[in-house]
């Protein structure tokens, strides 16, 4: 008959047999079962128990000491892991461990399968499995998805922290020791680059958006003929009706005319504002070299300096653009560089955490995006070729396969400009299949990217919550017994790493 053993795990009692515990060699419970069997054999061999030794009279002291020494030497030969229990009574052993995880461990001995409920915390399960000397590889495939969520969270949070720290070159605080100028530079840098640092920083971000929108409105208004005036020269004067006709020529409108004074001075004011902002950022940047290499600085310089150079040249010699064709081309290029002002919108948006999470989710989904582009490209090649031959008898449609490529990408992405369409039965068939293929292809890839964005956004909010928790409630939490390993200003990824 198999011997029953009772295990008290954190107050919850479990009963099993020694033979069950011996099913997994080189584990804590197996070593315990072997230890119990050996102890029973020794007691049977000696014919005396440790309780008998304690109750012996003093006149049998020699026998008592001998038996005690034999029992202790036997106990010392056991593995240290086996002895980490408290024996409550005969055949009952107490471990001060988590009973919920032990239930899963004991079922592993009984059934040979290790199943972990999804509601159990992975670090806790991992700690308990390590204590019971159970390898994680034994966890069933059905439970791995929920069990590995913690590891995925660590990777994603680490990735988010690295991505959010791209433009932070040095962890500094205005409260730290240093000169007044240093503290001022740190405060200005944080104010201009971190909208979450204060309410004033949020207002500053709003002002930057308004400046960018105003820049676009001015650039757009400059293309309207009604806002253009003729550059005064010594040449023959142009009549008003001739000027209206010449304004229809876009190149003449840009090179031979200028905007009215209201738009001109507004544009100059925006230019000087951007130049001042760039100068202040450069002065206060913790690392000048890294700032010059940053995308924000590159966009600002491309948007400001070409226009500033143009402004200086025209201020010195306003007729230069009319005297030399080379300078005319040069000023055209300088004018195009002003479009980088609109590109600053992406730089400013990067300060918004939601936009950065969207960029990060797209960056992490590069494999899915590459597969999507590959599938659409393959479909374009197939359907453009099929459409050309399907419309072979209709000379007015799809003159070549290159035009078919344009039609196929517009159709597969379900945009459908309607600028060209098939006219034959075979063409309709190819067009229908092309549309369905595009819906299926994009429909499969987009939800994957959307789910990644949701996951990254969730973990980003967790990171923000942790940072606020540290700043506001850290001291109070320490008093209430929070883990001593958690120190102020620890990154969330470091804290998660310390849990396992």
UniProtKB/TrEMBL annotation:
Its main location: membrane. It holds the Pfam family Ion_trans. It is a multi-pass membrane protein. GO terms for molecular function: voltage-gated potassium channel activity. One of its GO terms (cellular component) is voltage-gated potassium channel complex. Keywords: Ion channel, Ion transport, Membrane, Potassium, Potassium channel, Potassium transport, Transmembrane, Transmembrane helix, Transport, Voltage-gated channel. One of its GO terms (biological process) is protein homooligomerization. It is found in: Membrane. PANTHER family: POTASSIUM VOLTAGE-GATED CHANNEL PROTEIN SHAB (PTHR11537:SF254), VOLTAGE-GATED POTASSIUM CHANNEL (PTHR11537). This is Uncharacterized protein.
């Amino acid at each position: 008959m198999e011997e029953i053993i009772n295990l008290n795990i954190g107050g919850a009692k479990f009963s099993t047999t020694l033979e069950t515990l011996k099913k997994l060699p080189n584990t804590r419970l197996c070593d315990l079962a072997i230890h119990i069997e050996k102890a029973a054999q020794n007691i049977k061999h000696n014919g005396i128990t440790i309780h008998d030794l304690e109750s012996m009279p003093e006149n049998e002291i020699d026998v008592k000491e001998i038996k005690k020494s034999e029992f202790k030497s036997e106990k010392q030969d056991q593995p240290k892991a086996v002895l980490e229990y408290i024996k409550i009574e005969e055949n009952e052993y107490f471990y001060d461990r988590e009973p919920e995880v032990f239930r899963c461990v004991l079922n592993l001995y009984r059934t040979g399968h290790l199943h972990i409920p999804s509601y159990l915390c992975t670090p806790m399960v991992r700690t308990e499995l390590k204590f019971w000397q159970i390898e994680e590889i034994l966890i069933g495939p059905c439970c791995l998805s929920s069990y590995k969520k913690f590891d995925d969270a660590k990777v994603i949070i680490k990735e988010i922290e690295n991505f959010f720290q791209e433009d932070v070159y040095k962890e500094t605080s205005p409260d730290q020791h240093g000169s007044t100028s240093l503290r001022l530079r740190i405060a200005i840098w944080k104010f201009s680059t971190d909208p979450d640092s204060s309410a004033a920083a949020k207002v500053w971000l709003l002002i930057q958006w308004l400046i960018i929108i105003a820049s676009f409105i001015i650039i757009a208004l400059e293309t309207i003929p009604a806002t253009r005036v003729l550059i005064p020269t010594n040449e023959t004067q142009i009549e008003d009706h001739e000027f209206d006709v010449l304004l229809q020529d876009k190149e003449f409108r840009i090179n031979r005319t200028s905007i009215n004074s209201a738009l001109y001075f507004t544009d100059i004011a925006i230019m000087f504002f951007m130049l001042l902002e760039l100068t202040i950022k450069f002065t206060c940047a913790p690392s000048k070299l890294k700032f010059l290499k940053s995308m924000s600085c590159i966009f600002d310089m491309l948007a400001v300096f070409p226009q500033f150079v143009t402004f200086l040249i025209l201020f010195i010699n306003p007729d230069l653009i009319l005297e030399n064709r080379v300078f005319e081309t040069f000023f055209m290029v300088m004018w195009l560089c002003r479009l980088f002002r609109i590109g600053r919108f992406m730089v400013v948006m990067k300060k918004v955490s939601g936009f950065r999470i969207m960029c990060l989710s797209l960056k992490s989904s590069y494999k899915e995006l590459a597969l999507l582009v590959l599938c659409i490209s393959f479909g374009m090649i197939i359907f453009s070729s099929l459409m050309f031959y399907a419309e072979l008898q209709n000379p007015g449609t799809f003159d070549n396969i290159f035009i078919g490529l344009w039609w196929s990408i517009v159709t597969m992405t379900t945009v459908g400009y309607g600028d060209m369409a098939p006219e034959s039965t075979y063409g309709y068939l190819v067009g229908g299949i092309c549309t369905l293929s595009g819906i299926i292809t994009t429909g499969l890839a987009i939800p994957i990217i959307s789910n990644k964005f949701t996951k990254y956004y969730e973990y980003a909010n967790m990171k923000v919550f942790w940072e606020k928790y540290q700043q506001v409630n850290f001291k109070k939490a320490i008093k209430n017994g929070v883990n001593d390993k958690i120190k102020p200003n620890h990154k969330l990824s470091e804290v998660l790493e310390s849990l396992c």
